[in-house]
Structure formats: C-alpha cells, structure tokens
Amino acid sequence: MTIIIGAGTAGLMAAAHQKGKVILLEKGEKLGKKLSISGGGRCNVTNRKPIEEFIKNIPGNGRFLHSAFSKFDNEDIINFFENLGIKLKEEDNGRMFPVSNRAYDVVNSLVRLIEKKGVEIKKNCPVNKIIFENSKVTGVLLINGEILSANKVIVAVGGKSVPETGSTGDGYIWAEEAGHTITEIFPTEVPIKSNDKFIKEKILMGLSLKDVSLKVMDGKKVVANHVMDVVFTHFGISGPAALRCSQFVLKIMKKRKIDKVTMVLDVFPNLNEDELTNKIEKIMDKTNKKPQNALKSLAPERFLQFIIEEGDSSRKIAEKLKKFTFTANGTLPIEKSFITGGGVSVKEINPSTMESKLIKGLYFCGEILDIHGYTGGYNITAALVTGKIAATSD
Questions:
Q1: Which of 284, 319, 321, 369 has the greatest number of beta carbons closer than 10 A?
Q2: Taking a C-beta distance cutoff of 8 angstroms, is the pair 241, 264 a contact?
Q3: Count of CB atoms situated within 10 Å of the CB of 36
Q4: Phi, psi (degrees; rounded to nearest 5) at 367
C-alpha cells in the first residue's frame, strides 16, 4: 500500500505512475491548486532546453536531478502530456505551454488518469504525522485520529510559498521527525524591495523596461546578471529579471551581514558605452529638442526625464543608461514568492529513487526538497520528474 501526501504537481504525477493500491491525501478541497494558477493560469509545463543548460537554470541543487533526468526528462514530460491529449507549443526561451493556454487542462488530464487507475482520492484530509518503526515507514496518522497503514509514503506537500494553495510547511516537521535536515527556508522568484528615495516617492512606479540587464553586486563582483524585463513598483522592482535576482540579494545580505545590496541596471546590454554614446550623438545632431524628448526612441520618456540632468553630455547620458545604480534592502516575504528556497536536504535523499536515506519506504518529491529553479518551466519540471521517479522506485 502506498500513501501519497499532497495532490499538487509532484503528488499528482506520483499518483499517475504509482502501481498497486494507492491513496492520495489532499488536505484541501481542490487537486492541483498551484499548478492550475501557474504561468498566469496557462501552465508552463516544462522547458525544452538541453539538459545541461536546463540544470543551469536550477541554481538550487540542480545537479542533484542528473540521475532523475537520465530516467525521465523534459522531452518525456512533453510526450507524457501529449499522450494524454494535451498538445503543447513552444514559446520564447524553450518554454512549453498547452496549446489551449489553460492550466486546468493539464490538471484535469492528470486527475482523469489517476481516477482511471483507481487511485483512492481523499480530499479535506490533513495528515498529523508519518508513523515509523525501526527506521521504516508503517503509515500515517490523520488529524482526525485515523491511522492509515502503508509500506511506502511519498511526501509531496510543497514548500511555504503561495500558502493559499495549501503549502504551509507541514512537511518540514514530518521530515525533521524522521531525522532529516531542513536547510534554511527563503523566498525565491519574488519581487525586490528598495528604500531608495525615487522608489519611496514613486517616481518610476509602473514603468517597464524591456530586455535590460539587471546585476546584483557584491562589492565590485557581479554575483548575478539577468537580461530580461524589469518593472518599477511602489516598493522596489519586479518583473522576470528582478525575480531571478531576488535570491542573490538575500544571500549577499546574509553572507555579508549587511542591510542593503547594490544593483546595477543596464538599459542597453548589447551596446558598449562608446557605441551608445555615438548612437546618442547621432540622434542629438539631427534635432534641437531636449535629450529627454529627442531620445524617446531609446528609452521611456519618464525614465529619461528622471536620469538626465540639464547639461548632460552624450557620454554622461550613455553612462547613466549603462549604469543605473540603486540599492535593494531585501525581498517580499516567502508568502509572496512563487517558489520556496531550501527544504529537505538533498544529501539525505537517494537521487536515483527520491527515497530517504534515513527511513525505508519514505520518499520526498517536488518543492519540499531543497531544489529551486528560475521561472520558465524549471520548477514544474523538477516536481513532475521527482514525482514520477518517487512513484516508480521501490
């Protein structure tokens, strides 16, 4: 008998592949709740990048997934869903979405499969603890006092992000009771906060910059650099580049024991300062307008008005566009992040099976593990792959 705790991405995938008698326990009313809101409700199922490049996009212990990917990878995920009737399409940067653009179609395809397999689904059924005897799983104790016996328990309850989907950190307590180490929990893929004056005064609030380079600095060293979109908000910055940089802001603050980190925005990452200076000079030579007005084709007017001062030379303007510097003083809390950093230490998990090295019959998969990637289909892939491997391993 196998018990799977959590009917999210990893839990549904595990239930879809587990053989024999299976009970799927979900503490809420809905199955696949987080999956159904992922990708803005469209569900970025996976990413088609080659495996080595794929793993680079999982900065949190991506290499741990090598063994799992050798058995079931992103191409297998695509085939799996297409065989369920969910046609996928490739968008920018290798991201794969259902042709229908509906995350519910992905969730429903999994639910239909596990129902067809005869998996017993228990909703509104929270677990109190996992029961062990002699370093071996024997079952679970439900909140209502009922004991369910099992010789295999798969924990797929997620992390602490998006708690309204049911991910409230329950699994960490069970893992610790089994002797596992929980690495520090922190938000990733989350907007960044800044106390700089222009942020507090909301001067650039709502302004978007496309395909810019955002760097996180540790002194003179560039710790992270992502070329994507950035959006200025009332509390700091958001947008894909900010989300990807967020974990590095927190890591430097902790490592250096400092309360703010320098960030540098390069609006023209594909041009060096000389090339940009020449471009600005050519534009300015053709007009007698103020730089803020003349250069509107280069950057949003509101941004130009903010950074350009009267008398600035073309060189100075280029420098400001290449090195717009501000400070970050943290991120929004983990409840506002889409992905949890940290979790059950992967050193204590067999990478080929997802089984605990400490308790026989206990398996972990999905976001409860100390694995986290960037947005773009990487985290859902990690959940689907680890869920499948946990289910098909004895």
A1: 369
A2: no
A3: 20
A4: -70, -15
